[in-house]
Design a protein that fits this description.
Blueprint (H helix, E strand, L loop, with lengths): L1 H39 L6 H14 L2 H6 L7 H5 L3 H36 L11 H46 L1
Length: 177
């Protein structure tokens, strides 16, 4: 379990780094495109398509890392105003809902990926690539998200069980004294 967690952390950290680099690449492409359009009246014909594909990666790559490090957008104000037990219940329920959502999205994306592979669909635009490439990337990212949320959920449940064991042993020690 620990090995999987470490490998997942490494993969998520690497993809987050790549996502950061892609932000730089997109910025350079769009900046050069604006310069070419305004200075030479000759913009890049491919910048819009490449920008869209890279923005997809930029938005998906760091998502697993954000969930793993618990830095994603969440409603802390609601949970912080609840007592500890109810707050933990809300976190478990939200993690389960997120897990179900990402699993469902993975299932739908996987079906769409298979369909686009079988029908050899291509993207529209100047740069036409097989649509299945995009769905492969989406499926990989959703699989990582499902795995990350599942590992987070297992870690949360394990820590809850350990804290219950510690409180039970403390009660036993108190009784024996």
């Amino acid at each position: 379990m620990i090995k999987i967690q470490k490998k997942l952390t490494q993969v998520n950290s690497f993809l987050t780094f790549v996502g950061g680099l892609l932000i730089l690449v997109v910025s350079i492409i769009f900046t050069l495109d604006v310069i070419m359009r305004n200075a030479f009246n000759s913009p890049f014909s491919w910048s819009y398509d490449v920008g869209n594909y890279l923005l997809l990666c930029i938005s998906l790559f760091p998502a697993s890392y954000a969930f793993q490090k618990n830095i994603h957008v969440k409603m802390e104000i609601v949970v912080s105003n609840l007592n500890d037990k109810l707050g933990k219940i809300c976190v478990v329920i939200s993690d389960l809902l997120v897990l179900l959502l990402f699993t469902f999205l993975f299932y739908l994306s996987f079906q769409r990926m298979i369909h686009t592979m079988n029908t050899d669909q291509k993207t529209y635009g100047i740069i036409s690539i097989p649509s299945s490439w995009l769905f492969i990337a989406i499926c990989i990212m959703l699989f990582l998200l499902v795995l990350t949320v599942l590992m987070k959920f297992i870690k949360l449940e394990t820590s809850n069980m350990l804290s219950q064991d510690e409180s039970n042993s403390q009660k036993i020690n108190d009784l024996t004294l």
